[in-house]
Write a structure and sequence with these properties.
- The structure holds two protein chains of two kinds.
- Helices cover 22% and strands 19% of the residues of chain A.
- By secondary structure, chain A is α/β, with parallel strands linked by helices.
- In chain A, helix 1 runs parallel beside helix 12 and helix 6 packs across helix 12.
- In chain B, helix 3 crosses helix 5, helix 5 crosses helix 8 and helix 6 packs across helix 8.
- The N terminus of chain B is likely disordered.
- Classes of the chains: A alpha/beta, B mainly alpha.
Chain lengths: 591, 234
């Protein structure tokens, strides 16, 4: 027996950054909004406070703020010839599952993705010719430009309290910033975070090798701040507990201290927690959706929430899952290369070196989520000629610390025993005297990296799990070799006492250990319904009152963290809905 | 090995644990000045491990974390207590673990695929390791010499040891190793890291609240460590 509720204007599925931004904006525009969130309410005052928030075991190891894989997970495999098996516990990536979503436990690294990504196919074809792009690399232009998105990046940076230094203000290169970044209309809302010894040493070495290091922009407030909506931030305390934790200082830009409380204070907005959306309901004409079905996890009741508009704002993976479960759009088939839903799943790759310096004191427990120094010389620098190296995309190189807590972070030189007195001695000697240099690399789309519904395994509500097929391809391996050499050259120039060098990855992608929560694609944006699931306004090509918001719309993955464009696109979509769609509910781009 | 032998051994072991607790190495001044908050989790006695398992875990943690000038030994830090509480608690019982079949081992890149909760894995793994020890040395792990224990752990950790009952030895080892590290370095409210011995070993300050000034003040300088745990701030 399904309980049918009263129709509302908008139903938002999932309440993290994107749901919070859209919920707030549309409620303020006078629409009646209901947000359905599978997780529980958590607040800074009650949950992310001292001392209980400082618990590495609870939050890092046991995933207290993350999706509960006992009731919903995915199946995984490296290629279509393998049998996919369930990811029985989290590892490689960590979707959040509370009010605030992954925006609670992120580190705040906030980048502006540029036309280097948005025009990826056309730019590489123009410079290197069509044959430079491998036949199975299904990269495509995004259908949006940096210039269109620039004001929305600016908006998101101000809301999220991003600290940084502009490198390009309206075309003028600025000392101290990233000289390769695209032009910005404004400086960052806050000055950069205090640099730490590891990042300073890296910066000096990178500079003397001719590179262009700069402080990483991060939504960690470098001083007390009030955002344009009036949300108050404390100053970052460099507490060392950032990634995987909520911030007790309210210094990390997070939806649960910004857009969500503002939405909740609006009588047009209603939040229902413990509400697990199972399906988007297609209207009888197939051109619209009429609402969503969900289960109240407190009593198992199935409900139907009719709505004039549905916004999928869950974690990127779960948005794609809902599209497949709802039968909206044609599922992607990697063999026939037909369909779009599930296409172009991408991840990230990386490599890193550990440098040991007898006599230095890095104090790895004193750091912000973003107190890193980064260089983009092999990333968004189009001067870097990929031709001789044969890869597309790039990688950023960075050094610093982020959440270097002792269950997970205890560097020792290679060859150190894993236990016993020698292990203890090395652990004691090197915890504070080691630092890392890491490279984070892009992953280009490949026809065989995709999602579909698993034929065997089911979630706690009896629905098929989503199946992820993913592995690194030659492009990533070539990039990894280049990155490892660059990292090791810089590391050696610093004359460490010992070096655990960076090694290019050659093994298949594995579900353990943690790598990054930067899963992209599956319902990609583009210029035509043949090649994409949503248009540039993240509006479904199939059902015009359905918007799918999140990194699931990225046609490929860059080396950068995804939250910058995720936040910017949420504001961009909110404007398109408020200013255009509400007045004329129809496709915003002709198919 | 007889039942009698086991019982006597555990009686003696109990006496040693009691004695060790009484003889905890002298604390830093501040730790003495601030009485430790006592919680259920730090009490001795076992909620999950049986006698054989307790003997195994105690021998394991004392072998992996031996006493020296850097720290007390594993049982004196409470790593065995941490492991017991973890296995007895929700994690040990499989909270957040997807436990629906069908069950296949798959390939290593697919991660954990056993139809066992962590507590069940521990139980089966100890049984299988002891079976291997009895076969190779005629004794259970806890009665082996230091060098024999070292051989067993080397075989477990390198994947050279294959259990006869089909339990994947490397999977057991991964869990074993991870829990020993958790018991040494997690907050003392979870039962291990007693007197913050793990944190003191590496100079980790614990649940420290603010470093805004320290981040510059102690740049490339030793930070005077007097670790603080959650219980100290509660």
């Amino acid at each position: 027996m399904v309980t049918r509720l009263k129709e509302v204007d908008v139903v938002v599925v999932g309440l993290g950054w994107t749901g919070g931004i859209l919920g707030k904006e549309l409620a303020e525009a006078g629409l009646k909004v209901v947000a359905l969130e599978r997780g529980a309410m958590r607040t800074s005052d009650n949950d992310y406070s001292l001392p209980n928030i400082r618990d590495e075991l609870r939050y890092v190891v046991r995933h207290d703020l993350m999706q509960n894989t006992a009731r919903d997970t995915l199946t995984i495999r490296n290629n279509p010839s393998q049998e996919a098996l369930p990811m029985r516990r989290l590892g490689s990536f960590l979707p959040g599952e509370v009010v605030g979503g992954s925006g609670v436990h992120w580190s705040g690294h906030t980048w502006r993705w540029t036309d280097m990504e948005f025009k990826v196919r056309s730019q590489y074809e123009e410079r290197y010719g069509k044959n430079f792009i491998p036949a199975d690399m299904t990269i495509q232009d995004w259908g949006i430009t940096y210039a269109e998105l620039e004001p929305y990046y600016d908006k998101f940076e101000r809301v999220a309290a991003v600290s940084g230094k502009a490198g390009n203000l309206r075309g003028q290169i600025q000392p101290g910033g990233n000289p390769f970044e695209a032009p910005r209309a404004n400086e960052y809302p806050l000055p950069p975070l205090t640099t730490i010894l590891a990042s300073e040493m890296f910066a000096a070495a990178a500079k003397s090798s001719g590179y262009h290091p700069f402080p990483r922009p991060a939504a960690n407030a470098s001083r007390a701040y009030t955002n344009p909506d009036g949300a108050k931030f404390g100053a970052c305390q460099y507490c060392g507990y950032c990634q995987r934790f909520g911030c007790e200082a309210n210094a990390k830009g997070s939806p649960h201290i910004t857009v969500i409380p503002l939405a909740m204070s609006n009588p047009n907005f209603e939040l229902r927690t413990y509400s697990w959306v199972t399906k988007v309901i297609k209207d009888s004409d197939g051109k619209r959706v009429s609402g969503v079905s969900y289960t109240n996890l407190l009593n198992g009741e199935e409900l139907e929430q009719p709505a004039g508009m549905v916004l999928l704002c869950a974690y990127a993976i779960n948005n794609v899952h809902l599209m497949l479960l709802s039968g909206i759009g044609q599922p992607y088939d990697p063999v026939a290369q037909t369909g779009v839903i599930g296409k172009n799943y991408c991840y990230q790759t990386g490599t890193g070196a550990t440098l040991f310096f007898q006599g230095r004191r890095f104090n790895p427990f004193m750091s912000a989520g973003g107190s890193n120094v980064t260089m983009d010389d092999y990333n968004i620098n189009w001067e870097f000629d990929r031709g001789p190296h044969g890869f597309i995309g790039g990688y950023n190189v960075a050094a610093g610390f982020n959440t270097a807590l002792p269950i997970g972070y205890r560097p020792v030189p290679s060859g150190t025993p894993q236990w016993g007195k020698a292990w203890k001695k090395a652990t004691a000697e090197w915890y504070q005297t080691a630092m890392n240099i890491g490279a984070s690399g892009a992953v280009m789309a490949n026809r065989y990296n995709c999602y579909d519904l698993d034929p065997t395994y089911r979630n706690a509500l009896g629905q098929p799990l989503m199946r992820m097929t993913f592995d690194y391809k030659a492009n990533e391996h070539k990039m990894g070799q280049h990155a490892a050499k660059v990292v090791n050259d810089i590391a050696r120039s610093m004359n460490p006492t010992h070096l655990n060098p960076a090694v290019a990855r050659t093994q298949p992608w594995t579900v353990v250990p943690y790598q990054s929560t930067h899963n992209t694609g599956g319902t990609i944006m583009g210029t035509s319904p043949r090649e994409s699931a949503v248009n540039k306004y993240l509006q479904s090509w199939d059902c015009h009152n359905l918007f799918v918001v999140g990194a699931n719309v990225f046609p490929h993955n860059a080396s950068y963290n995804p939250t910058g464009p995720v936040g910017a696109l949420a504001y961009w979509t909110a404007d398109a809905i408020k200013n255009r769609y509400v007045k004329n509910p129809a496709p915003l781009v002709p198919a | 090995m007889t039942e009698q032998g086991l019982g006597r051994r555990d009686f003696l072991k109990g006496a040693v644990v009691g004695g060790a607790a009484a003889a905890t190495p002298s604390l830093g001044e501040s730790a003495q000045a601030q009485p430790q908050a006592t919680t259920e989790a730090t009490a001795t006695g076992y909620a999950f491990l049986n006698f054989v398992e307790a003997a195994f875990v105690e021998a394991l943690v004392d072998h992996m974390v031996p006493a020296d000038e850097l720290s007390p030994k594993g049982t004196d830090i409470g790593i065995n207590i941490y492991i017991d509480r973890a296995l007895a608690g929700s994690w040990g019982k499989g909270e957040r673990l997807y436990m629906q079949g069908p069950w296949r081992l798959g390939v290593p890149s697919q991660g954990y695929q056993l139809p066992l909760t962590p507590a069940q894995l521990y139980r089966a793994g100890i049984e299988a390791t002891n079976a291997h020890c009895r076969k190779s040395y005629g004794k259970t792990f806890d009665l082996l010499s230091e060098s024999q224990r070292e051989e067993v752990l080397a075989a477990l950790s390198s994947g050279k040891l294959a259990f006869e009952n089909g339990l994947p030895a490397r999977v057991f080892w991964t869990t074993l190793y991870q829990t020993v590290m958790e018991g040494m370095f997690s907050d003392p409210i979870h039962g291990g890291n007693r007197e913050k011995a793990g944190w003191k070993l590496i100079g980790f300050p614990g649940a420290i609240a603010v470093n805004r000034e320290n981040v510059q003040k102690f740049r490339d300088k030793k930070f005077p460590v007097d670790p603080v745990g959650i219980a100290d701030m509660s």
